[in-house]
Amino acid sequence: MLKQATSDELCINTIRTLAMDMVEQAQSGHPGMPMGAAAMAFVLWTRFLKHNPADPSWPDRDRFVLSAGHGSALLYSLLHLTGYDLPLEELKRFRQWNSRTPGHPEHGLVPGVEVTTGPLGQGFASGVGMAIAERMLAARFNRPRLELVNHHTFGLVSDGDLMEGVSSEAASLAGHMKLGKLIYLYDDNRITIEGPTSLAFSEDVGARFEAYGWLVQRVEGNDLAGVAAALDMATSQTERPSLIIARTHIAYGSPGKQDSSEAHGAPLGAEEVRRTKEALGWTAGEHFHIPPAVLERFRVALESGARAQSAWIDTLNAYREAYPELGREWYRCQSGQLPDGWESSLPTFPDPAATASTREASGKVLNAIAPLLPELVGGSADLSPSNNTYLRGYSAFGAETPGGRNLHFGVREHAMGAILNGMALHGGLRVYGGTFLVFSDYMRPAIRLAALMQLPVVYVFTHDSIGLGEDGPTHQPVEHLAALRAIPQLTVIRPADAGETVEAWRWALRHREGPVALVLSRQKLPVLDRTLLAGVGGVVRGAYVLADGSPSRGPAVRESSSSIVLMASGSEVSLALQAREALKQNGVQARVVSMPSWELFAAQSSEYQEATLPASVPVRLAIEAGAGLGWHRWVGRSGAVISLERFGASAPQQVLYEQLGFSVKAIVDRAMALLAQTRSE
Fold first, then answer.
1. Of residues 413, 500, 503, 572, which has the active-site annotation?
2. Cα-flanking dihedrals φ and ψ of residue 663, to 5°?
3. CA 460 to the chain's CA centroid
4. What CA–CA distance (Å, rounded) separates 542 from 546?
5. What's the rounded Cα separation, in Å, for the pair 116 and 159?
6. Does an H or E element contain 233, and which?
7. CA max distance for the chain
């Protein structure tokens, strides 16, 4: 039996008890935040959030980001109660094998989860990306009285989110861009795992966000009218993102653990759950109980969502009638399809006497395809002149130019990575972002989440090796290729020349099942003569025979007259080709394999892998100006790796290559030593 309670209280306490029961049954999780934030989440989800649980992918829905992903039990409760495809049985299987209710929300696993969160601050910054995407698409598609894009991005953020630096970067940019449709509820419960936030956090958060250009309001988290009034004010904004600082109490209602760090990341315990339920008017023995009146109240979302979506569909139909070409473009961009004939615009580099850095070739690709792919948008962390990522002839996105396609992220790699994720999640755009390869370290959490969510984000990482020269070891990547290759579901491509760069972009834009990292040179490289060498088509297979001892046999033969395989990526491929010619003078035939992408090569059939790296030629030498970690998978037991197992130095590029062992002579000497060792065994 339930004690008397108002309808609102009953709904809010249902959220609290479901969260308690999930965590208690799993004996794992974070009950405190869902209990403390339940009231303001209830107001948002029942009075403000425009969504249709029957169609979680409706394009003009409001987005909700649970940046404080440790409070996943709150989101799962709301999703089930409002009618998403998340049965109560899944709430009972919280944090269990193969359940749809993992410890932190995962996009693509649970309908209604807009973004995978957990690493604090990432959801906050991804929400900024969603708000940017909304404004960009509204500027492109909306017409008077026919608005296809008009929604908000809401979020729930925690003390931990606001301590992480990525949220500060993103908040600064959001304020600068005047993203008025971005609204965050700040769960100000003043508790972290170690204790009160006062142990390490004493700033005036509101003053900081006001300085960023945000509208800041303060409310009591359990004051439903106050929360609603604050959300009313926030949704009326057009030029300022909003932060609603809601004073809450972690584990609200728990007699023994309210306002205690003990409720942050551990079950309350059976006895404390019993006492809390009694305090909230619940019968202690009832678990996962949802009063019928509560379910009826929440499930109104199905009716209101269907009405809102139906009205939008009417607008869409009228739009297609009035603007048929734009209507077709809308469908194409929402589906992620590329326009017919886009590849015809890709540049070619036919002059084998020419040289070009791969970053330069990448910039030419971007600018060649930009007119045919209006959904292609991106930018750089204040490095576009170096990354060659600026789309010439198009404005920069900003408060006054919402239709701009170039994004100035500023010196904010952390935020850039997460913002790109949010833009990709929103849909309707193809996004890219650029910086130096060495600064991929700053982006790693966002890259990892992009890979986990399988988002089609393209990273343009330039200055890929000691080849950048005089800037020295702080800017010369050594371990970064290995670090990126270690991320599952991320495809890393390091092209050898301009032609391979074109093919890398072609593949990256076709690929929609995960992020792609293009790793590009600063220094100019020879444009490989494809009349004498294999064509660039092998790039999509990750590795291919560029030159062999028997060129007439082509790249797919099983047998080879070569006695050694030289394999390399990027700028070292041309070195391998020069070494091949030098080895000929010593009577040695060498096969050269260009290996721009380990991930693509690993996905090929065993037959293709054998044809490229035949077992009949076990002597293999890999050359790459970075850490050798991982190359032994490809060179085998009889092979070796010329790599860089130290930091670089400040000197001209050619001097560095010579001094650090990346020269034709060094490759030839190592190859001859390998062959001699093999003969003696």
1. 413
2. -135, 160
3. 13
4. 12
5. 19
6. helix 224-235
7. 94
Nearest to 38 by CA among 65, 15, 70: 15
> For the chain, what is the radius of gyration of the CA atoms?
28
- What digits encode the pLDDT tens for the residues 133-162? 999 999 999 999 999 999 999 999 999 999
* Contact between residue 160 and residue 405 where contact means Cβ atoms under 8 Å apart: no
- Rounded CA-CA distance 78/366 in Å is 42
Give the residues across from 355 on adjacent strands: 526
- Cα separation, 461 vs 430, in Å, equals 17
Query: H or E segment at 331?
Result: helix 324-335
- Supply the pTM of this predicted model: 0.97
Question: CB count, 10 Å around CB of 654?
Answer: 12
Measured distance between the N- and C-terminal CA atoms of the chain, rounded to whole angstroms: 83
Class of domain 342-525: alpha beta
In CATH terms, the superfamily for domain 7-54+63-124+152-304 is: Thiamin diphosphate (ThDP)-binding fold, Pyr/PP domains (3.40.50.970)
Segments of the chain assigned to CATH 3.40.50.920: 538-680
- Let me know if 413 is a catalytic residue: yes
Predicted confidence (pLDDT) per residue in 458-517, tens digit: 999 999 999 999 999 999 999 999 999 999 999 999 999 999 999 999 999 999 999 999
